[in-house]
Amino acid sequence: MRASLPARAGLAFVSISIVEFICVAMTAFASAWVYHELASTPGLRVKVYLLASCFIGAAEVCIAAMAGQFLHLEKQREIRFASAGIGAAATTFVVLTSLLFIFKLSDVYSRGTLILQFVGCSMTVGLVRLAAYRAFQNAAEEGLLQRQRVVLVGRHDDCEACAGQLRKSGGGFDVVACPLSWDAASGEAADFDRATGAKLVERCRVLRPDSIILLVDRKQEDGSVGMLLSLLRQIPADVYAVPTHRDIFWANAQTADIGGIATFAISRRPLSVFDLVVKRTFDIVAAAAGLIVLSPLLLLSSLAVKLDSRGPVLFVQIRHGYNNEAIRVLKFRTMYVSDSAEFRQASKGDSRVTRIGRIFRKTGIDELPQLWNILRGDMSVVGPRPHAITHNELFTPRIDSFDRRHTVKPGLTGWAQVNGFRGETNTLEKMQNRIEHDLYYIDNWSLLLDLKIILLTLFSGKTYRNAW
């Protein structure tokens, strides 16, 4: 099995989807114009057909994306890729026809236009897919899509040999560092413990690699290697292991070819580049719309906080975000101003909470300023909730894979919250339950899951059960 293409391939998938949207929308509008010219019907309703054409283009791309048609293009066949696009176009027109029937708009939108648009858009999608597929394959063969930052971990000699192989492969790999190496002179494994592994992880976070390749020597103990791999899984990068001896293997791991080097794929980044673009686009649209629509509520809330108690309207707290980087999270202030710098979670009946603060915390209004964090790119609409840094420092050594929740951006709401794991986490069991739900979300992400979580946040009472 070949390794999935990294960042540049993801950008290629995004480019294909954008081109497809533009071509389909233009074809839909041109088809409407051609039909009205041929049929000599009075006056083309430009605004109606322009909006409809944009809907057709967007719907076709969204349907194709949700079906995973733009993923792993290197593994698809040319004809299948094109026919799948035509299928997405057909589904789009089924949806459009249903909407026209439900809302009784057939007198505004002629059947002849609809038929011509379907034929034209189907042909356009097929041709765009064929051209895009060939362009993608040519770029892949020339190594234009496989440029990625690689960190090597292992004995110095093994790292040097692997780096040389990657550079000679012509795949466009950039070996950015070998941050950890074992003693090459003695041939013995260096003393390796969890503290050393933690330093390696922090080094990798700074380097921001696309891939981490661990070169495993027979002399490394299974326990130390397993512990290191467990730590590396908490970094938003693809992690591979290369055995330097044939008798080393991982039973359940898939094999992957990286620059001609046979590796075991230990873990993948939770979201592909295409997924990240889809999620970020949704975040920008949702956050911008939320700030506009909710601006009266935000202004009234600001006034209520100011009148209720002395102090600033907003409370700013440093929390861990994507890749464990510190972010400034905004909230409406819900507690009385205190000189104490000690962090303590709010508890039921907490005397520090203001009168208006109790309402805000119960309804989630206090979190709405984080729409600005989302627009800035620090957060996402949906994701694991960001914890205070003190909280992270307390639970990171006590819960395995705790930091893996930081392989995606933190969210305004999340899977744990809509399942009742919101509020105070004053016991290890409560935090473990929250982390389990956060990791489930990361491992099973989809745009549909995000939409489901948003609906549950708005309409499920379980979301607010432990808010105080």
Automatic annotation (TrEMBL):
The chain crosses the membrane at residues 12-36, 48-67, 79-102, 114-132, 284-305. Its main location: membrane. GO terms for cellular component: membrane. One of its GO terms (biological process) is polysaccharide biosynthetic process. Residues 279-459 form the Bacterial sugar transferase domain. It is a multi-pass membrane protein. NCBIfam families: EPS_sugtrans. This is Undecaprenyl-phosphate glucose phosphotransferase. It comes from Bradyrhizobium erythrophlei.
